[in-house]
Specification:
The protein is α/β, with parallel strands linked by helices. It is built from 18 helices and 25 strands. The strands form 3 sheets. Strands 17, 18, 19, 20, 21, 22, 23, 24 and 25 form a 9-stranded mixed beta sheet that branches. Strand 19 and strand 20 form a beta hairpin. The longest helix has 21 residues.
């Protein structure tokens, strides 16, 4: 299906918005009136610019407060409409969006609304324009799509149809099944937006919190299925009002929007991109560091052993159990300090995973490699993290990335660490929703609900994505303050059988654990009936504790931060599936305190 995006979704000038839409691969645009009025280009110049970019102008919007008005007011509306229709002819747009009226003089009279919309459509037809009538969720008298359709049906004019908007329909809790009663040729346009489920005024909800399909809590795919059953053949168009999108770079935002429509078409059966290849585990986490000594000291204290070195690059492999950490001191490591920059994901079909990623607009990363190096497929996540698709041991015919490394020591000793439990990836403030959709759609991970975490300097948002069996778990967070390095550090959580024993070994080897205030453990004793000897160990080692409603338990503690990275020791018991979110405010406050003291 053709795809379209409203210019209101993007930041920048109209020219910048059109360029971003074209580069992302959209077929057309909705031009928002304010974008045209505020720009220096005339309608003919905009039309030519769109043609040069391969874009059609599919909708001009909005026209407000037209119907069910006293005759004098309606006459003014027709005069205004005549000017708009002439402008649209110069612009090359053939459909105008008319929103249900919020005018204080509008009356609750469907017959009058139908008659006036028919007169408007008569005028529009003279200019070769169609009128798409949309029910605003906060319309004065018309606020539901079925009511708008009844008025359009009563008007019975060939140049008058309806515009369906997923936000206006789903935010009111309307049943979209009734859409199937509307003939497809009378649905002149379909606008799509998702949104988180919020208890707030619907106008403010719409104006500030819409997001792309798949990023919120609405069943947008279900609504589109109903629309397609009518025989609708128009474009799928995004209309999203979002404060973050309007401040972010329009290029990545447009790509994110187009990806959301590709996924939506897959979910509705309208298109079939390559099937997702769900990763089966974490092959490695790669740290870039200009000085490997501090990170190596922490890894050594955690029980990791430097087992191998890359044959042609300054990259060391550290192992403990199934946990593998790469320390890379190459040229890219000379900026920004120690940071988590890449993740290797084991995959039953690395090439298929890369094809899926590329089809969903993930940038494929070029690699500098020697002829004998394993040909790893790699793409970039929205935050710039490099994702490598590595063959599993069940695919011996495929190259093994570990063959690129030459052994330097014997196998690592067993210190109780079993593997990487999860990775916490802090996102740039404007990539949070995009990151959740990317990891869900490109990697086939399941997304959990977003949660808010209290930081001493604001709120952090976090959303976990994971495989069904928990073999891959990623916690995506957006920090409280843009310049706060403490809140923006990433971390690697290591699974162990006994967190108390692992923490003691780490400390005995010279490692520094994150101190936790005594107040926390005093409260812990009141909330949970834990043995006193356990509580004493938790106090001593800074171990945090959580228990879910099914009795699953989570014990975890943290190392001090090295550069922009720290480690977490994790013990899960009884099927605990979370990430210790109730303890996040304690950890964040403790890190701020530790940073202030050391700084």
């Amino acid at each position: 299906m053709r795809t379209c995006i409203a210019t209101v979704c993007l930041s920048g000038s109209l020219t910048e918005k059109l360029t971003a839409a074209a580069r992302a691969g959209f077929d057309g645009v909705e031009i928002f009136e304010n974008d045209l009025l505020a720009g220096p280009l005339g309608p003919e110049e905009i039309r030519a610019r769109c043609a040069d970019l391969g874009l059609t102008v599919d909708l001009y919007q909005p026209m407000r407060d037209v119907e069910a008005l006293p005759e004098e007011e309606f006459t003014r509306s027709l005069r205004r409409a005549r000017h708009k229709f002439e402008l649209m002819r110069r612009l090359g747009a053939d459909t105008v969006l008319v929103c249900s009226s919020v005018h204080p003089l509008a009356v609750d009279d469907d017959a009058l609304a139908a008659a006036q919309l028919a007169r408007l459509a008569d005028l529009a037809q003279d200019f070769g324009v169609r009128v798409a009538y949309e029910a605003l969720a906060w319309g004065r008298h018309v606020s539901t799509y079925d009511h708008a359709w009844r008025i359009v049906e009563a008007a019975d004019h060939p140049a008058l149809g309806t515009c369906l908007d997923s936000f206006h329909i789903l935010s009111r809790g309307s049943d979209p099944k009734g859409i199937e009663d509307i003939p497809g040729d009378k649905i002149f346009f379909l606008q799509l937006a998702d949104a988180p489920r919020l208890a707030m005024d619907v106008l403010q909800w719409s104006r500030h919190y819409r997001c792309f399909p798949g990023q919120g809590g609405f069943d947008v795919a279900g609504l589109v299925r109903h629309v397609l059953r009518t025989g609708y053949t128009g474009p799928l168009s995004l209309e999203v009002f979002n404060d973050v999108f309007r401040q972010a770079d329009p290029g990545p935002t447009a790509v994110d929007g187009r990806r959301s429509l590709l996924v939506l078409q897959e979910e509705t059966g309208a298109a079939a991109p390559p099937a997702p290849v769900v990763p089966t585990g974490v092959a490695f986490a790669e740290l870039l560091t200009p000085d490997p000594a501090p990170a190596a000291a922490v890894l050594g204290a955690l029980g990791f052993t430097r087992t191998a070195r890359h044959r042609g690059k300054p990259v060391d492999l550290w192992e403990q159990g199934d946990a593998r950490i790469l320390l890379n001191t190459g040229p890219a490591a000379r900026r920004d300090g120690t940071r988590l920059a890449a993740i290797g994901l084991t995959s039953p079909d690395p090439a298929g995973a890369a094809r899926r990623a590329e089809a969903l607009l993930a940038p494929v990363l070029p690699r500098r490699r020697a002829p004998e190096d394993a040909p790893l497929e790699a793409v970039a996540a929205p935050d710039g993290t490099e994702l490598f698709f590595c063959a599993t041991g069940r695919a011996p015919e495929l190259p093994d990335w570990r063959a690129d490394f030459a052994d330097v020591t014997a196998a690592p000793r067993d210190t109780g660490i079993r593997g990487i439990d999860h990775l916490a990836l802090t996102q740039p403030w404007h990539h949070f929703d995009e990151a959740a959709l990317f990891h869900r759609s490109v990697l086939g991970l399941d997304a959990q609900e977003s949660v808010d975490l209290a930081d001493p300097y604001g709120l952090m948002r976090s959303r976990a994505v994971a495989t069904a069996d928990g073999s891959v778990r990623l916690a995506l967070t957006v920090g409280a303050a843009p310049g706060d390095a403490t809140a923006h550090a990433r971390h690697i959580a290591l699974a162990c059988d006994d967190v108390v024993a692992a923490a003691r070994r780490f400390r005995a080897a010279g490692g520094r654990l994150l101190p936790v205030p005594a107040n926390y453990h005093d409260d812990l004793a009141a909330r949970f009936d834990l043995p006193e000897e356990d509580l004493a160990a938790y106090r001593d080692l800074g171990i945090l504790y959580d228990r879910d409603q099914q009795g699953g338990e989570f014990r975890h503690c943290y190392t001090r931060t090295v550069g922009q990275v720290f480690f977490e020791l994790v013990q899960r018991d009884g099927g605990y599936g979370g990430y210790g979110a109730p303890n996040a405010p304690i950890r964040l406050a403790a890190q701020h305190t530790a940073h202030d003291v050391s700084g």
